[in-house]
Amino acid sequence: MSVAVPVLPAWLSQAQIEADVARALAEDMGSGDVTAALLPDTDDIAYLLCKQDAVIAGRPWFDACHRALDPEVRIDWRISEGDRVSAGTVLATLAGRSRTLVSAERTSLNFLQTLSGTATTTARHVEAVAGTGARILDTRKTLPGLRLAQKYAVRCGGGENHRIGLFDTVMLKENHVRAAGSITAAVAEARRQQPTLPLVVEVEDLDQLREAMAAGCERILIDDFEPALRREAVRIAHGVPAAQRIPLEVSGSVGLDGLRAIAEDGVDCISIGALTKHVHAIDLSLKLGPPPHHIA
User: Fold this and answer.
1) From which domain of life does this come (predicted)?
2) What is the CA radius of gyration of the chain?
């Protein structure tokens, strides 16, 4: 069974995926796979096995790895991107040349195990706040060179993306406010220089929260607020007409155990660096031959 090719977000191109793959293959293969050269270069098949419960993400990178070495390889996926699978699931079967199947194995699995790990972690956090209305966001705490891939995986796990980088959202934090003299002054300068970009303001106390609300922005970040202070911040933010409300985002030392309590306080967004920073790769394997009958 072949499953439709995943739809990429607007900020991620096939060219970017292929560039990621080219770097990774060059790192692994160098001047050539000296071990694969020992194999007869014949037509062969393989199967991709997931060894633990997971949410799968990274198909475009997996495919690109194999097609970079063998453009004629056939990859038949049995699952869609973002699907939840159980341990022992055959995710895909492949048909191609034996040497290239083996040479692409590790690099393709590295992408798929890492991105599936990000998607699986994200899905756990999304489940923890189900029904509260709070949205789970990622951060810029990503693996160097793999930010777009990890942010894609967050979406596969049901999360949402914060800013992609320093270029697409103005985010005023403590140092920016200090340099400008006040939140009001920092907001005014941000609007002057970047009138079309979203603006997020981080506040350190309730007075700054009120100042940010008066100055205006797209979202207010309350970082490391104690529970009672967080609830008061929500009360203040909700004290204006709904049409004028500015969403509140919580960040800073947010763990899975206390996540639902934060969401139930009424905040709109919770940004979590651990989605992409603490990578727990999913256990996958690619084996030559057909799947065994008991897992086929």
Assistant:
1) Bacteria
2) 23
Neighbours of 184 (CB within 10 A): 15
Catalytic residue among 78, 106, 260, 287: 106
Q: What is the pTM of this model?
A: 0.94
- Tell which CATH architecture fits domain 14-126+279-288: Alpha-Beta Complex (3.90)
- Min mean pLDDT across 156-165, 170-179, 252-261, 272-281 is at 252-261
Residue recorded with tokens 């940010």:
212
Would you list the domain boundaries of the chain? 14-126+279-288, 128-277
What pLDDT, on a 0 to 100 scale, did the predictor assign at position 2?
54
Tens digits of residue pLDDT in 100-122: 999 999 999 999 999 999 999 99
Catalytic residue among 78, 84, 173, 210: 173
Please count the other Cβ atoms lying within 10 Å of the Cβ belonging to residue 211: 17
Assess whether 202 carries a catalytic annotation. Answer: yes
Place of tokens 């929500």: 234
> What amino acid occupies position 269?
C
Check the annotation: does 251 bind a ligand: yes
Residue 223 catalytic? yes
Is 141 known to be catalytic? Answer: yes
Question: Is 141 among the annotated ligand-binding positions?
Answer: yes
Does 277 qualify as catalytic in the annotation?
A: no
Q: Spot the catalytic one: 67, 141, 210, 231.
A: 141
Q: 128-277 domain in CATH 3.40.190.10?
A: no
106 is known as an active-site residue: yes
